C-alpha cells in the first residue's frame, strides 16, 4: 500500500486557481475513502509561498478544504515553498524521518514530466513513485503499490539544466549540520607540495542520522541522492582548496586494480595514481582504510581503498608499484598514510578469513581460536608495505605512533567523528581520504 501521498498544487494553470479548494477537497475525500485509520497514508500538500506573502494567510485559505478529514488530519501537512526543489526537499525530509518509501504523487498532468526530473535528482531507487492526474479518483486501485516508472524523460535539455540549477541553488542555501567541516591532515606529507586530508562526518547537509552530515558517497540502496553528495563535495573542495571538476574517486571493487590517470580507466579499481598537478584523487572509507601515497621527489601521488579483501590482495603495494612503474618513483621515497578505519578493537571476521591474516602475521589476529576473531587490517597493511620495500618511518599509522590518534582513529569507536558500516548497518555514510599535487 501507498505510505505517503504528495499533492502538487505549486503551479496550477490559471483557470484552476479558483477551484483549488474544491480540487483539494475532492482529492482528500478519495484518499480518505480508501484508507482506514490504521493504514491512512501521510499526506503532503505542496503549494506556493508567494514572495513577500504571509504564510498564515495561505494556510487559512486552505482550512476549508482541510477540515473534516478525521483519518487524515493528524497525517496531513501543507508545505509552502518558493520553488519545487525547496518543497520536495522538505517533503523528502518528512518521508525519511518516518522511513517511508512508497509514494503517490497527484499533480496536474502538465507537471508530470517536470516532477519526474525533480524526483530523479532528489530521490534514489530506495523510493517507489506512482503518478496520478489531479482529479477525483474513482477506485481503490489508485492507492495500491505502483507499477515501475516508464523509461526516459521528454523534457528539453535546457529545462533539465534549469531544474538541476534550481535544486543546486536550494542545497547550497542550506546550513551545514553537526558543526564546521573538519579535515584531518598528516604531518608526514609535505604541505608545500601536496594538498591532502581525511574528512570527518561534520560540515555537510546530509540529515539522515546514519548519513549525517558530510556523507561523500551515493548509492541506489541509500537515501542520500547523488546531488546531495555533490553539494557535500563542493563544500569540502571549497574548504580544502581543490577543484571538484578535477576530482577522481576510486571505483571500489574490494580488489587490487589500480587506475593510472590519463590512461584508459578500468571499470572498477581500488587504487589510483597521478603525476598531474591539480588532479585530486580520493579513496572512500567507512571502516575500510583510505590510504594516501606521496612521493615528494618525483612529485607523484596516489590513493587506495583497502578493506579486508583488498588488504589481503595487496592493494596498497599495488598502488606503490604503479607509482614506481609509471613515474619512476623510488619505493624508498614514497610516503604512506593510513586514514581513519575500523580498528582491531572492534573488527571481526569469520575464522576462515582470519586465517589469511594469521598467515601474514599472527599478531594481526586476536582470539584466533574463536569463531569470529578480531582482525588488525592496519598492521597487515603496514607489514605488506614494508615487505614491498616501503620504509617503516615512511608509513604513518597513528593508532601505533600517536596515542592521541591524530589521523588513524577507529571509525567504529567514534560515532561523533566518523561513519562506520560495521556500526551503522546498510544505510551508512562514507568519509574519504584525498590528495593532489599543488599547482
Key attributes of the depicted protein:
439 residues, CNF1/YfiH-like putative cysteine hydrolases, Rossmann fold, 18 strands, 12 helices, six-stranded mixed beta sheet, alpha/beta, S-methyl-5-thioadenosine phosphorylase activity, 2 domains
Topology:
Layout: E1 4-8, H1 20-33, E2 42-48, H2 55-66, E3 76-81, H3 84-97, E4 102-107, H4 112-122, E5 128-133, H5 157-173, E6 183-184, E7 194-199, H6 226-240, E8 247-249, E9 258-260, E10 271-274, E11 280-285, E12 289-295, E13 300-306, H7 308-312, H8 315-327, E14 335-338, H9 351-360, E15 365-366, E16 374-375, H10 377-387, E17 395-396, H11 398-401, H12 421-424, E18 431-437
Helix pairs in contact: 1-2, 3-4, 4-5
Subcellular location: Cytoplasm; Endoplasmic reticulum; Nucleus; Peroxisome
GO molecular function: copper ion binding; hydrolase activity; S-methyl-5-thioadenosine phosphorylase activity
Organism: Pachyramphus minor
Q: What separation lies between the terminal Cα atoms? A: 56 Å
Low-confidence stretches: 136-153
* CATH architecture name of the largest domain: 4-Layer Sandwich
Biggest sheet layout: 6 strands, mixed
For the record, the CATH class of the largest domain is Alpha Beta
Domain count: 2
Radius of gyration: 26 Å
Coarse structural class: alpha/beta
Shape: elongated
Extended strand count:
18
Mean pLDDT: 89
> What's the helical proportion of residues?
25-40%
Read across the widest sheet, the strand sequence of neighbours is: 9-10-13-12-14-17
